[in-house]
Amino acid sequence: MFAPTKTWRKWHKRINTNQKRFAVASALAASALPALVLARGHVVDNVPEIPLVADNAIESLQKTSKAASALKALGAYDDVEKSKASRKIRCGVGKQRNRRHVQRRGPLVVYKEDHGIVKAFRNLPGVDLVQVSALNLLQLAPGGHLGRFVVWTRGAFEQLNEIWGSNSRLSNKKGYKLPRPSMTNSDLTRLVNSDEIQSKVRPARTEIVRKRLKKNPLKNVGVQVRLNPYAATLRKAEQVAAARRATRRAEAAVRRGKQVKHEVQDATKIARSKTHDPQQKLNYQKIVDGASFELPKLKVRSAKDFQ
Question: What is the model's pTM?
Fold first, then answer.
């Protein structure tokens, strides 16, 4: 995101209250599904049931050792050990800003009244605590992923109906009623394969109807011949004419090459004839033949010639 440390950035966004309540209710419902809890990464192999409800006596625990023993008895301490083993140094420069270590989330303990439970569970790695009337979406679905492993006390679990109500009565939240699902049975496969629905649907089509692919007659020869039988004759004539033109071009290139060769030879002869005058040719021939020749005598002029 752009400029996360600027003062004018919008740090909060207003959301309708009913939307937030709907999100919390959905997160609570997801925490009761073992598949979503396992998919989120919690270790719940030794947990007897989900949702896991403990006795109200754990609200009165004072020691961390007692809290650990209680989680071991419930089979939920494996998730605490998983969270403890996941502690590592944060990547990047965030470790220089008082956020040096990161670790995975463990179980969430929801209680009704605090008689020492917060003090007992707060030092266990990965364990979060929340009062049932102040359930937080960030704790029920950390990172936007549903399926947090929740350990309920009996009083907190019974108070859910009073806080959130049900499909038939209002909750103690002003004017709020839990959203009612439009489907009473969510097993779509069973619904589709039921006799009531299968008796009304049309029978399955077993015959295979293959449609002909439309082709462009301007590019496809077969379609063009189908529309115009004479197109094959025209195409063959075009091919014969193209072959003839190619042959003529080749023959013309050969003739042109010979003509160019003769022109080059003639030009060479003309250049040589222009380069050597007759006297030079004569002198060169005398040198080749071995004949001696005398240089022309120079006429010596006297001073009288210049007066």
Answer: 0.59
